[in-house]
Design a protein that fits this description.
Length: 452
């Protein structure tokens, strides 16, 4: 591959004599030729620019000087080899954004000529004329900021394309596992020795040899980073490439993709949300009930346990009743509550004593008494994100070593969900809904209190 870099500052490109680009030039994988545009001027002052037609600040580079130069460098016209793939790349802040995809495409060219403009740029007819000469013309930008000239962008293009040529980068594997890979996710963070540096520890999971766990952690980090740093990339993600765990992680980072794209925030319920919580609870509670339960029994339960005044009471006691909600931006600009959890941290009447199973369920366990998401958002990952946030919240309060819950034995969906989140069945309890005594599985998960 041959690069011809045309500039009025040839010294800029000494940078390409170092490191992998320097080695690629020495070994002949890469041929970089730098040209001084002023060699194609014809006046004593070696002038390359003039004032813009139509007025305005700054100077514009003359097409006639560029034309003589590019004719020579591209060897267009009679005698040119037509099968060669030639590209004229023109750096400009108004060009198309340079991407890895474009770099990969350009790596298949035979010759790339980069025309570095200074001042306000190059007369537009230069790009337009060479397009007619069966040269691929690419006006490109390297980001949304303004540089003084195209030289730095030319360096960027040369390195981005050059490193993709076979043999330039020693280990070709390092070309595939990088940010902006096939998946469209940013790379996960990397760590090396020392294990503890300035009181910062390397994440524990990376120190063990559990490769599945490490892969999972790294993917989580990639998803979270991408959501926080590059929402534009999240918008491009293919929902079908994301499993339920991926979706839960993305929800924790503020992004829902399924069933429709939305921004979501999980946080503690506010004291003025008792009414909204009661409505959400009344809408979602019936879904967890077994089919044989009558409507009046369900309505009785909702009236007694899920009333606005019950939520007001719980919200007034945030030390013991932790209520987390998931909020999405509503179409009218407001917010909708789409899911919630209630965790009772304990104290004398915290854990329902009928749930306690000595040796398996501790008296001091936190009790996840509610975890519900509106039916239209099932499969979004919101419930898993809420549950994991509830666990973190329990851990942060450092009062409990377990979290326990009950779910109707007929609710297979719930049992599968809680198992996937590290819960296991330790026994059963009865759970009254209206006049009916139902049988629940009791499930438990260990939590690790955060000390300090
Ligand atoms: Cl390619 N050229 C200049 N002058 N400024 C830029 C740019 C290019 N890309 C971003 N800013």
């Amino acid at each position: 591959m041959r690069f011809d870099l045309v500039t009025i500052f040839p010294d800029y490109f000494h940078a390409l004599d170092f490191s992998l680009m320097g080695k690629a030039q020495e070994t002949g994988l890469l041929d970089v030729v730098v040209h001084d545009l002023r060699d194609w001027t014809e006046d004593a002052h070696r002038t390359v620019d003039d004032s813009p037609y139509g007025g305005g600040a700054g100077m514009v580079m003359r097409p006639d000087v560029w034309g003589r130069c590019l004719d020579d460098v591209l060897a267009v016209g009679p005698g040119a080899a037509p099968r060669l793939r030639r590209v004229l790349a023109i750096p400009t802040p108004s060009g198309v954004p340079l991407t890895q995809r474009i770099a990969e495409d350009l790596a298949g060219a035979n010759q790339i000529v980069v025309a570095c403009g200074r001042y306000e740029g190059i007369d537009q007819r230069v790009a337009d004329r060479y397009r007619q000469d069966e040269v691929e013309v690419l006006e490109f930008s390297i980001g949304d900021y303004v540089l003084n000239g195209g030289e730095v962008a030319a360096l960027v293009l040369t390195e981005a394309v050059g490193r993709l040529l076979e043999g330039v980068v020693g280990n070709p594997e390092s070309l595939v596992e990088e940010s902006h890979g096939e998946e469209g996710l940013l790379e996960y963070p990397e760590f090396t020795r020392p294990r503890c540096w300035r009181e910062l520890d390397v994440p524990e999971v990376l120190l063990g040899g559990n490769h599945a766990e490490i892969a999972r952690w790294r993917r989580d980090q990639s998803l979270i980073r991408t959501a926080h740093r590059r929402p534009d990339l999240v918008a491009e993600l293919e929902a079908t490439h994301l499993d339920i765990h991926d979706r839960e992680v993305l929800v924790g980072a503020g992004k829902i993709l399924v069933p429709r794209r939305a921004d979501v925030v999980i946080g503690l319920a506010r004291s003025d949300e008792a009414g909204a919580l009661a409505r959400l609870a009344a809408d979602t509670f019936p879904m967890a009930c077994p089919p044989q339960l009558g409507e009046t029994d369900i309505a009785d339960f909702i009236g007694v346990h899920l009333s606005e005044s019950e939520f007001t009471r719980m919200l007034a006691d945030p030390d013991d009743h932790r209520i987390l909600v998931a909020r999405v931006k509503a179409r009218d600009g407001g917010e909708d509550l789409i899911g919630y959890t209630v965790t009772v941290l304990g104290g004398p009447d915290g854990m329902p004593t009928e749930m306690v199973r000595p040796g398996r369920l501790e008296l001091g366990a936190a009790y996840l008494s509610k975890c519900y998401v509106r039916a239209e958002w099932h499969g979004s990952g919101v419930s898993g994100a809420l549950l994991e946030r509830a666990v973190v919240d329990v851990e942060a309060r450092a009062r409990n070593s377990q979290i326990a819950l009950g779910t109707n034995i007929a609710n297979k969906r719930a049992r599968t969900f809680y198992r996937r989140h590290g819960f296991s069945v330790v026994g059963r309890r009865t759970f009254e809904v209206g006049s009916v005594a139902n049988i629940d599985d009791v499930l438990v998960r260990k939590v690790t209190p955060v000390v300090g």
